[in-house]
Write a structure and sequence with these properties.
Helix content is 32%, strand content 26%. By secondary structure, the protein is of the alpha+beta class. The protein has 3 domains: 100 residues, Rossmann fold (3-Layer(aba) Sandwich); 70 residues, ATP-grasp fold, A domain (Dna Ligase, domain 1, 2-Layer Sandwich); 243 residues, 2-Layer Sandwich (D-amino Acid Aminotransferase, Chain A, domain 1). Helix 4 runs antiparallel to helix 5.
């Protein structure tokens, strides 16, 4: 087992990793930018190294500085968390070269799944259902229009190096194709330095369902059931739950088996997520694979009593997985608490938290790195915490969530708590009637009328 793990991340995921490491008797090293010197992960790690100024490019994305921090502290492993360098194949490769274990998959696995065209080809070979679309990148407008007509409108244009909804455009008619194609190319180039675009059939009334998987160094793979991540805004998840109110046991088993095939196709090592789009007829299609821990991993942990961070560390240390398939017996819901103003187009709201009280009680979990007096920096993602509730049924989990949200006091900055309160009262959400487009028609009531 590792003696010391450097956590190449910040915020709540850094705290999450530190907690598990402490329970396993492993020393930890925090790295931090000057903007994060008062963050809890700096305080609770055994050692802390400042790696630069606030800008991510000069700190959390600066591989030489992170490797230097690992060397001077004698860390024998690095946990990348999520975001930043978590799916950076070069970072994984450099860790190998310096004989420091990257807690995650090897560089070739990351590369195979990081490029969406390569990932799709790999899934076709493995027999995993994929969305009908182009076999490669679309290089000219005429060829794109011809293929779109063959597939049938509506279609979706996607950036091959994309993520977070960047470089994605829906096209409902041929007359709009050229404008949307050029727009997608431009955004992809600006966001990823790669303007490669491919086409897929647009799945109508889609659900975003992902399967949690784990694979060890010996070729064993298991799945840990699904999460429903359909409540999204501009392709950014806001609410996740396990199990999905839409997925039945037969579909769960089919999707689980497909996720295992996907992982086996690349000899996957670590924990990861195979993401699918599921249409109204419960036909499902591979969308992408995330080769890292997910923000929403707590809902899986809560329903099957399984520490996914501990499993990541054990796999990286060469310990075999049990090879079981897990199915949920409880129901868990997670809402992301972001420092954003939901009444002002979710504009980021950095600043000082003047008062904080987090909810407690049976079936309530809060993962966060903030505290009263903490200054939320403007330089990073606006998520400041996750509220998770778990109960015997979905109805009870929602009831607990409503109570917990009422008990959640966070003052000094705007947050998404008012949005989540109203969502939990929404009839369609409560009945499980929603798709990835749900929030496009969701109307947030003025604060004075929300009661």
């Amino acid at each position: 087992m590792f003696k010391k793990i450097l956590i190449a991340n910040r915020g709540e995921i850094a705290m999450r990793v530190i907690r598990t490491c402490k329970e396993m008797g492993i020393k930890t090293v925090a790295v931090y930018s000057t903007a994060d010197k008062e963050s809890l992960h700096v305080r609770f790690a055994d050692e802390a190294v400042c790696i630069g100024p606030p800008a991510s490019a000069d700190s959390y994305l600066n591989i030489p500085k992170i490797m230097a921090a690992a060397e001077i502290t004698n860390a024998d492993a690095i946990h990348p968390g999520y975001g930043f360098l978590a799916e950076n194949a070069s970072f994984s490769e450099i860790c190998e070269e310096y004989n420091i274990k990257f807690i995650g998959p090897g560089p070739e696995m990351i590369r195979k799944m990081g490029d969406k065209i390569t990932a799709k080809e790999t899934m076709i070979e493995a027999g995993v259902p994929v969305v009908p679309g182009s076999e490669g990148l679309i290089t000219d407008i005429a060829a794109g229009k011809k293929l779109a007509k063959k597939i049938g409108y509506p279609v979706m244009l996607k950036a091959t190096a994309g993520g977070g909804g960047k470089g994605m455009r829906r096209v409902f008619a041929e007359k709009d194709f050229e404008k949307e194609f050029r727009s997608a190319q431009k955004e992809a180039k600006a966001s990823f330095g790669n303007d490669g675009i491919y086409i897929e059939k647009l799945i109508e009334e889609p659900r975003h369902i992902e399967i949690q998987i784990a694979g060890d160094q010996y070729g064993n793979v298991c799945h840990l059931s699904e999460r429903d991540c359909s409540i999204q805004r501009r392709h950014q998840k806001l609410v996740e739950e396990c199990p999905s109110p839409f997925v039945d046991q037969a579909l769960r088993e089919k999707m689980g088996n497909s996720a295992i095939k996907a992982a086996e196709a690349i000899n996957y090592e670590g924990v990861g997520t195979v993401e699918f789009l599921v249409d109204k007829n419960k036909d499902y299609y591979f969308m992408e694979m995330n080769t890292r821990i997910q923000v929403e991993h707590p809902v899986t942990e809560e329903v099957i009593d399984y520490d996914l961070i501990k499993e990541q560390i054990k796999i990286a240390a060469g310990i075999p997985i049990t090879g079981r398939e897990y199915f949920p017996r409880l129901h868990a819901i997670e809402v992301r608490i972001n420092a954003e103003d939901p009444y002002n187009d979710f504009r980021p709201s950095p600043g000082v938290i003047t008062e904080l009280h987090t909810p407690k009680g049976h079936g309530v979990r809060v993962d966060t790195h903030v505290y009263g007096g903490y200054a939320i920096p403007p330089h990073y993602d606006s998520m400041i915490g996750k509220l998770i509730t778990v109960a015997q049924t979905r109805e009870e989990a929602i009831a607990t969530m409503k109570r917990a949200l009422d008990e959640f006091i966070l003052e000094g900055v705007k947050t998404t708590i008012p949005f989540h309160k109203q969502l939990m009262e929404n009839k369609d959400f409560v009945e499980g009637n929603f798709t990835t487009h749900f929030l496009e028609t969701f109307e947030l009531q003025p604060e004075e009328d929300k009661d």
